Amino acid sequence: MGTKSKVWVVKFGGSLLSDDTARRSFLKEAASVARKEPLVLVHGGGPEINAALDKMGIVSSWVKGRRVTDDAAMGVVEGVLSGTVNKKLVGELNALGVRAVGVSGRDGGLLKAKPVPDLGRVGEPDKADPNLILVLLKAGYLPVLSSVAAGRDGGALNVNADEAASALAVALKARRLVYMTDVAGVLDAAKKTIPVIRVGDVQRWIDDGVITGGMIPKVMSCRNALKKGVAEINIINGRAGLSKRIGTQLLP
Ligand SMILES: Nc1ncnc2c1ncn2[C@@H]1O[C@H](COP(=O)(O)OP(=O)(O)OP(=O)(O)O)[C@@H](O)[C@H]1O
Ligand SMILES: [Mg+2]
Question: Each residue of 131-181: pLDDT tens digit?
Protein backbone atom coordinates (compact mmCIF):
# COMPACT_ATOMS: atom_id res chain seq x y z
CA MET A 1 0.00 0.00 0.00
CA GLY A 2 1.60 3.26 -1.12
CA THR A 3 0.97 6.79 0.00
CA LYS A 4 -2.37 6.92 -1.81
CA SER A 5 -3.88 4.42 0.57
CA LYS A 6 -7.45 3.24 0.09
CA VAL A 7 -7.93 2.31 3.70
CA TRP A 8 -11.08 3.20 5.57
CA VAL A 9 -10.95 3.61 9.33
CA VAL A 10 -14.37 3.30 10.92
CA LYS A 11 -14.92 3.90 14.62
CA PHE A 12 -18.00 2.26 16.11
CA GLY A 13 -19.13 3.98 19.29
CA GLY A 14 -19.55 2.12 22.53
CA SER A 15 -22.81 4.04 22.74
CA LEU A 16 -24.18 1.76 20.00
CA LEU A 17 -22.85 -1.60 21.16
CA SER A 18 -25.87 -2.64 23.18
CA ASP A 19 -28.28 -1.74 20.38
CA ASP A 20 -28.46 -5.21 18.79
CA THR A 21 -30.24 -4.03 15.64
CA ALA A 22 -27.80 -1.18 15.01
CA ARG A 23 -24.77 -3.35 15.76
CA ARG A 24 -25.86 -6.24 13.55
CA SER A 25 -26.71 -4.05 10.59
CA PHE A 26 -23.46 -2.12 10.97
CA LEU A 27 -21.41 -5.31 11.10
CA LYS A 28 -23.16 -6.57 7.96
CA GLU A 29 -22.31 -3.35 6.15
CA ALA A 30 -18.75 -3.43 7.46
CA ALA A 31 -18.36 -7.00 6.24
CA SER A 32 -19.52 -6.06 2.77
CA VAL A 33 -17.20 -3.03 2.61
CA ALA A 34 -14.31 -5.19 3.81
CA ARG A 35 -14.85 -7.57 0.89
CA LYS A 36 -14.09 -4.72 -1.53
CA GLU A 37 -11.88 -2.22 0.29
CA PRO A 38 -9.30 -2.37 3.05
CA LEU A 39 -11.19 -1.59 6.25
CA VAL A 40 -10.10 -1.21 9.86
CA LEU A 41 -12.61 -1.03 12.71
CA VAL A 42 -11.94 0.77 15.97
CA HIS A 43 -14.40 0.46 18.83
CA GLY A 44 -15.15 2.06 22.16
CA GLY A 45 -17.02 0.55 25.07
CA GLY A 46 -17.95 3.20 27.62
CA PRO A 47 -21.29 1.73 28.74
CA GLU A 48 -19.86 -1.81 28.99
CA ILE A 49 -16.97 -0.53 31.11
CA ASN A 50 -19.40 1.34 33.38
CA ALA A 51 -21.46 -1.79 33.89
CA ALA A 52 -18.41 -3.94 34.70
CA LEU A 53 -16.97 -1.41 37.15
CA ASP A 54 -20.37 -1.02 38.81
CA LYS A 55 -20.64 -4.76 39.27
CA MET A 56 -17.27 -4.79 41.01
CA GLY A 57 -18.14 -1.81 43.16
CA ILE A 58 -15.42 0.38 41.64
CA VAL A 59 -16.59 3.99 41.61
CA SER A 60 -15.12 6.23 38.90
CA SER A 61 -14.47 9.91 39.08
CA TRP A 62 -14.26 12.03 35.97
CA VAL A 63 -12.06 14.94 34.97
CA LYS A 64 -13.08 16.80 31.81
CA GLY A 65 -14.82 13.78 30.35
CA ARG A 66 -12.04 11.35 31.19
CA ARG A 67 -12.31 8.52 33.65
CA VAL A 68 -9.64 8.57 36.36
CA THR A 69 -8.26 5.04 35.93
CA ASP A 70 -6.20 3.38 38.68
CA ASP A 71 -4.50 0.01 38.19
CA ALA A 72 -7.53 -1.97 39.35
CA ALA A 73 -9.88 -0.06 37.08
CA MET A 74 -7.41 -0.43 34.19
CA GLY A 75 -7.56 -4.19 34.54
CA VAL A 76 -11.33 -4.04 34.16
CA VAL A 77 -11.16 -1.56 31.27
CA GLU A 78 -8.71 -3.72 29.36
CA GLY A 79 -10.65 -6.91 30.08
CA VAL A 80 -13.86 -5.37 28.80
CA LEU A 81 -12.45 -3.52 25.78
CA SER A 82 -9.82 -5.95 24.50
CA GLY A 83 -11.65 -9.00 25.80
CA THR A 84 -15.43 -9.02 25.96
CA VAL A 85 -16.29 -6.23 23.50
CA ASN A 86 -13.51 -6.87 21.00
CA LYS A 87 -14.13 -10.62 20.84
CA LYS A 88 -17.88 -10.15 20.54
CA LEU A 89 -17.41 -7.95 17.45
CA VAL A 90 -14.76 -10.27 16.01
CA GLY A 91 -16.99 -13.28 16.58
CA GLU A 92 -19.99 -11.67 14.94
CA LEU A 93 -17.92 -10.54 11.95
CA ASN A 94 -16.43 -13.98 11.50
CA ALA A 95 -19.95 -15.42 11.56
CA LEU A 96 -20.69 -13.12 8.62
CA GLY A 97 -17.95 -14.80 6.64
CA VAL A 98 -15.12 -12.27 6.88
CA ARG A 99 -11.85 -13.01 8.61
CA ALA A 100 -11.75 -10.53 11.48
CA VAL A 101 -8.78 -10.29 13.85
CA GLY A 102 -8.97 -8.51 17.19
CA VAL A 103 -5.97 -6.45 18.26
CA SER A 104 -5.39 -3.74 20.82
CA GLY A 105 -3.03 -0.81 20.62
CA ARG A 106 -0.62 -2.85 22.76
CA ASP A 107 -0.14 -5.43 20.02
CA GLY A 108 2.75 -5.06 17.61
CA GLY A 109 3.59 -1.58 18.83
CA LEU A 110 0.42 -0.29 17.16
CA LEU A 111 -0.44 2.53 19.51
CA LYS A 112 1.76 4.31 22.03
CA ALA A 113 0.38 6.90 24.39
CA LYS A 114 1.68 9.42 26.87
CA PRO A 115 0.04 9.48 30.26
CA VAL A 116 -2.29 12.35 31.09
CA PRO A 117 -1.11 13.83 34.40
CA ASP A 118 -3.14 12.99 37.53
CA LEU A 119 -5.53 10.58 35.81
CA GLY A 120 -3.71 7.31 36.53
CA ARG A 121 -3.56 4.97 33.57
CA VAL A 122 -5.15 7.37 31.10
CA GLY A 123 -3.20 8.26 27.99
CA GLU A 124 -3.24 10.29 24.83
CA PRO A 125 -2.08 8.48 21.68
CA ASP A 126 1.13 10.09 20.43
CA LYS A 127 2.68 7.46 18.19
CA ALA A 128 1.24 4.83 15.91
CA ASP A 129 3.03 2.10 14.00
CA PRO A 130 0.57 0.79 11.42
CA ASN A 131 2.69 -2.12 10.22
CA LEU A 132 0.71 -4.89 11.93
CA ILE A 133 -2.51 -3.48 10.42
CA LEU A 134 -0.93 -3.31 6.96
CA VAL A 135 0.24 -6.92 7.24
CA LEU A 136 -3.24 -8.07 8.25
CA LEU A 137 -4.97 -6.08 5.48
CA LYS A 138 -2.58 -7.38 2.87
CA ALA A 139 -3.36 -10.94 3.92
CA GLY A 140 -7.09 -10.27 3.65
CA TYR A 141 -7.97 -9.91 7.32
CA LEU A 142 -10.26 -7.30 8.84
CA PRO A 143 -8.48 -5.77 11.85
CA VAL A 144 -10.66 -4.78 14.81
CA LEU A 145 -8.85 -2.47 17.24
CA SER A 146 -9.72 -1.85 20.87
CA SER A 147 -8.72 1.48 22.35
CA VAL A 148 -6.05 0.33 24.79
CA ALA A 149 -2.58 1.72 24.11
CA ALA A 150 0.90 1.02 25.42
CA GLY A 151 2.60 3.40 27.81
CA ARG A 152 6.36 3.95 27.70
CA ASP A 153 6.80 0.96 30.02
CA GLY A 154 4.65 -1.23 27.74
CA GLY A 155 1.85 -1.20 30.31
CA ALA A 156 -1.77 -0.56 29.40
CA LEU A 157 -3.13 2.95 29.05
CA ASN A 158 -6.80 3.77 28.62
CA VAL A 159 -7.19 6.02 25.57
CA ASN A 160 -10.28 7.57 24.05
CA ALA A 161 -11.40 5.44 21.10
CA ASP A 162 -11.94 8.52 18.91
CA GLU A 163 -8.35 9.59 19.47
CA ALA A 164 -7.15 6.05 18.78
CA ALA A 165 -9.07 5.98 15.49
CA SER A 166 -7.69 9.34 14.42
CA ALA A 167 -4.08 8.42 15.29
CA LEU A 168 -4.40 5.18 13.36
CA ALA A 169 -6.03 6.89 10.36
CA VAL A 170 -3.15 9.37 10.21
CA ALA A 171 -0.53 6.62 10.46
CA LEU A 172 -2.28 4.58 7.74
CA LYS A 173 -2.75 7.67 5.54
CA ALA A 174 -6.37 6.57 5.43
CA ARG A 175 -8.63 7.79 2.68
CA ARG A 176 -11.64 8.01 4.92
CA LEU A 177 -12.33 8.23 8.65
CA VAL A 178 -15.88 7.67 9.85
CA TYR A 179 -17.18 7.98 13.40
CA MET A 180 -20.43 6.10 13.96
CA THR A 181 -22.20 7.29 17.07
CA ASP A 182 -25.62 7.45 18.72
CA VAL A 183 -26.57 10.90 17.36
CA ALA A 184 -26.93 12.21 13.79
CA GLY A 185 -23.56 13.96 13.73
CA VAL A 186 -22.71 17.20 15.47
CA LEU A 187 -25.90 18.97 16.57
CA ASP A 188 -26.36 22.72 16.97
CA ALA A 189 -27.98 24.44 19.95
CA ALA A 190 -31.42 23.62 18.51
CA LYS A 191 -30.36 19.94 18.26
CA LYS A 192 -30.29 20.03 14.47
CA THR A 193 -27.50 18.33 12.54
CA ILE A 194 -24.77 20.69 11.33
CA PRO A 195 -24.09 19.25 7.84
CA VAL A 196 -20.59 20.71 7.42
CA ILE A 197 -18.16 21.98 10.04
CA ARG A 198 -14.96 23.83 9.25
CA VAL A 199 -12.25 22.77 11.69
CA GLY A 200 -11.49 26.40 12.35
CA ASP A 201 -14.95 26.74 13.92
CA VAL A 202 -14.65 23.75 16.24
CA GLN A 203 -13.18 25.65 19.18
CA ARG A 204 -15.95 28.25 19.05
CA TRP A 205 -18.66 25.57 19.19
CA ILE A 206 -16.91 24.12 22.25
CA ASP A 207 -16.49 27.52 23.91
CA ASP A 208 -20.17 28.26 23.29
CA GLY A 209 -21.11 25.03 25.06
CA VAL A 210 -22.77 23.54 21.98
CA ILE A 211 -20.24 20.73 21.64
CA THR A 212 -19.75 19.02 25.00
CA GLY A 213 -18.87 15.66 26.59
CA GLY A 214 -18.15 12.76 24.25
CA MET A 215 -18.44 14.97 21.16
CA ILE A 216 -15.34 16.97 22.17
CA PRO A 217 -12.72 14.24 21.58
CA LYS A 218 -14.48 13.41 18.33
CA VAL A 219 -14.26 16.91 16.79
CA MET A 220 -10.80 17.55 18.25
CA SER A 221 -9.43 14.30 16.85
CA CYS A 222 -11.07 15.08 13.48
CA ARG A 223 -9.27 18.39 13.48
CA ASN A 224 -5.99 16.63 14.07
CA ALA A 225 -6.60 14.01 11.37
CA LEU A 226 -7.60 16.63 8.77
CA LYS A 227 -4.51 18.65 9.57
CA LYS A 228 -2.42 15.53 9.01
CA GLY A 229 -3.90 14.66 5.65
CA VAL A 230 -6.98 12.47 6.13
CA ALA A 231 -9.27 14.08 3.58
CA GLU A 232 -12.69 12.62 4.17
CA ILE A 233 -14.07 12.64 7.70
CA ASN A 234 -17.65 12.12 8.81
CA ILE A 235 -19.39 11.88 12.17
CA ILE A 236 -22.61 10.02 11.49
CA ASN A 237 -25.66 8.38 12.94
CA GLY A 238 -24.57 4.78 13.43
CA ARG A 239 -28.17 3.61 13.32
CA ALA A 240 -28.69 4.99 9.80
CA GLY A 241 -25.71 3.08 8.50
CA LEU A 242 -22.35 3.42 6.85
CA SER A 243 -23.59 3.93 3.28
CA LYS A 244 -26.10 6.68 4.04
CA ARG A 245 -23.71 8.73 6.16
CA ILE A 246 -26.30 10.94 7.81
CA GLY A 247 -24.50 13.50 9.93
CA THR A 248 -21.65 15.95 9.77
CA GLN A 249 -18.72 16.26 7.42
CA LEU A 250 -15.57 17.92 8.74
CA LEU A 251 -13.66 20.15 6.35
CA PRO A 252 -10.38 22.05 6.68
N1 LIG B 1 -23.13 19.24 19.85
C2 LIG B 1 -23.31 17.91 20.03
N3 LIG B 1 -23.84 17.17 19.04
C4 LIG B 1 -24.05 15.85 19.19
N5 LIG B 1 -23.74 15.16 20.31
C6 LIG B 1 -23.21 15.83 21.34
C7 LIG B 1 -22.95 17.24 21.24
N8 LIG B 1 -22.41 17.65 22.41
C9 LIG B 1 -22.33 16.56 23.19
N10 LIG B 1 -22.79 15.45 22.56
C11 LIG B 1 -22.85 14.12 23.15
O12 LIG B 1 -21.85 13.28 22.57
C13 LIG B 1 -22.36 11.94 22.60
C14 LIG B 1 -21.53 11.03 21.71
O15 LIG B 1 -20.28 10.76 22.33
P16 LIG B 1 -20.06 9.45 23.24
O17 LIG B 1 -18.65 9.46 23.68
O18 LIG B 1 -21.13 9.38 24.27
O19 LIG B 1 -20.38 8.25 22.22
P20 LIG B 1 -19.35 7.34 21.37
O21 LIG B 1 -18.05 8.05 21.21
O22 LIG B 1 -20.11 6.99 20.15
O23 LIG B 1 -19.17 6.06 22.29
P24 LIG B 1 -17.77 5.58 23.04
O25 LIG B 1 -17.17 6.79 23.68
O26 LIG B 1 -18.19 4.56 24.04
O27 LIG B 1 -16.93 4.99 21.98
C28 LIG B 1 -23.79 12.11 22.19
O29 LIG B 1 -24.60 11.04 22.58
C30 LIG B 1 -24.17 13.41 22.91
O31 LIG B 1 -24.74 13.14 24.17
MG1 LIG C 1 -16.83 8.64 22.95
Answer: 999 999 999 999 999 999 999 999 999 999 999 999 999 999 999 999 999
Distance, CA 161 to ligand 2 centroid (Å)? 7
- The ligand whose atoms approach the alpha carbon of 81 most closely is 1
In a domain, 182, yes or no: yes
Within a domain: 1: no
Best of 215, 235, 236 for a ligand 1 pocket test (most atoms within 8 Å of beta carbon) = 215
Ligand 1 site, residue 216, Cβ cutoff 6 A: no
Beta pairing class for 111-115 and 123-128: antiparallel
Q: Tell me, yes or no, whether 2 lies in a domain.
A: no
CATH of the domain at 84: 3.40.1160.10
pLDDT above 70 for 4? no
Tally of structural domains, the chain: 1
Q: Which atom of ligand 1 is nearest to the CA of 187?
A: 3
- For the cut 70, the answer to whether the pLDDT of residue 196 exceeds it is yes
> Which domain covers residue 140, as residue numbers?
8-251
CA-nearest residue for atom 20, ligand 1, is: 13
User: What region, left, alpha or beta, does residue 176 occupy, with left being phi > 0 and alpha being psi -120 to 50 degrees?
Assistant: beta
Q: Is residue 157 assigned to a domain? A: yes
* Per-residue pLDDT reduced to its tens digit, 10-41: 999 988 999 999 999 999 999 999 999 999 99
pTM: 0.96
Core vs surface per residue 35-44: b (16+ CB within 10 A) or e: eeebbbbbbb
Helices 86-95 and 20-36, packing angle to 10 deg: 60
DSSP letter (8 states) at residue 107: G
